[in-house]
């Protein structure tokens, strides 16, 4: 009985996600779902990423948190349209579901953007289970979280198209085996690109930005 209920929730989400995907395809918008545990640096990475791609790529952001508009305030300072979703209004969900994205996107002029970033709620488990109609998923892992996280949270790493290893600037101060982390990521998702960056020190961004721009442009080309 319990399994049936869970299936139904996921089935409904899947349908809604497909509707979102159709809408975004029609508009030629590349949608990126950014996920990580709390505090890995999703917002910091996105603040910096926006400074690299704007104004060349017209972008909007949907950001999910259980409470507060802190992240929306930070991201709005870059000048892009931002919609903050707070899930405590509907039960404190630990992830963004497809119907939430549909509602949030209705507050954005989709004819005026080529790229929609979704910063998911900080959680290394639930967001990976919910398709929101995105084109690609990226997981941000920071070096303070430990080498074994890809092995402990395999779904997240299996479901993502790329990983960002953030807070590289802290390596000199940590007992941390970066190569072991990279090996663990490849064990779960062989061939997955990993971008080593420091969001706060602004290092390592070029390969990540190139990967992103290629994705956005190939989606635009599919439309035209
Ligand atoms: N040293 C260092 N600190 C960082 C880096 N990136 C982010 N931080 C710090 O990590 C903390 C969390 O960063 P956020 O960008 O808020 O992380 P987040 O993943 O968006 O957090 P939630 O949205 O709450 O899940 C902040 O204090 C950042 O300044 C980095 O590259 N190096
Ligand atoms: Mg954040």
What does this structure look like?
- The chain has 224 residues and is an alpha/beta fold.
- It has one domain: Rossmann fold (3-Layer(aba) Sandwich).
- It is built from eight helices and seven strands.
- A seven-stranded parallel β-sheet has the order 3-2-4-1-5-6-7, sandwiched between helices.
- Helix 1 (2-27) runs parallel beside helix 4.
- The longest helix has 26 residues, at 2-27.
- 40% of the residues are buried.
- The site of guanosine-5'-triphosphate (GTP) has 17 residues, from helix 2.
CATH-assigned homologous superfamily:
P-loop containing nucleotide triphosphate hydrolases
Q: What structural category do the secondary elements indicate? A: alpha/beta
Instruction: State the separation between the terminal residues, measured CA to CA.
Output: 47 Å
The CATH architecture can be given as 3-Layer(aba) Sandwich
Low-pLDDT segments: none
Largest sheet: 7 strands, parallel
**CATH first level: which class?**
Alpha Beta
Number of domains: 1
| Tally of individual helices | 8
Strand element count: 7
List bound small molecules.
guanosine-5'-triphosphate, magnesium ion
Specify the overall morphology.
globular
Percent of residues in helices = 40-55%
Order of helices and strands: HEHEHEHEEHHEHEH
